[in-house]
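user: can you give me the structure for this one chain? tokens are fine.
assistant: on it. calling the predictor now.
[tool input]
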Amino acid sequence: MDGDLASCTHATDLTGALAERTAGLGFDDLPAPVCELARQCVLDYLGCAVAGAGDPLVRLLLDEVAEAGGTPQASVIGHRVRLPALAVALVNGAAGHALDYDDVNLAMPGHPSVAILPGLLALAELKGSSGRDVVTAFVAGYETACRIGLALQPGHYALGFHSTATIGSFGAAAACARLLGLGAEATAVALGIAGFKMMLVIWFFMHVRTDNPLTKLFVFAGFFWIAILLVMTLGDYFSRTWMPGGKFW
């Protein structure tokens, strides 16, 4: 870690530093090799999602969310259908990880792109964001996930937690916050809400028994976008009620 991040000794210090770094990142700050790697991550995710689009779990989720209906806001990968962005993030998240071929970063350790891109791309399509903005947001989220992963390892993964679902939620929240242009304070709130959602994911993995691990994928696919929706609607309230020590109730 570098600079301010390396000097963080408390969770609230780390949250603030990560939020400021995310909110302040611009496309011009990204070296050319980083932009190229980001594009490769997006391409890898899309390829995995296309390949996994016919998985039984994906079809099950698609049937459920299609029946629920709603405003067509974003595209489902591998299917000629548009659905509400939150539903699209759920289905595309499951498709991207269904075959378990998606990219890995050992800093988490886990699959960062599939945790970040389903919600980010759905939000980008909804907002009509540019490619430059998407790449910038993706890098911000990816770096956030990896830095948090490094701070938690090796204990987090060694205890059996699924880092893609837990740590990935922070990356998705940071990426979507950056795409929305949220400031550092609101981004910190997004990370806090993602942390709360992460606890629900951990509970699920500790208590649900199944012979098919794919049935667990839907749990984390939609949580990331929920964090952003909450920030968009409640961010001002949380900003005004943030308590000393970084806690809000």
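assistant: here you go. DSSP finds eleven helices and two strands in the chain. The longest strand covers residues 74-75.
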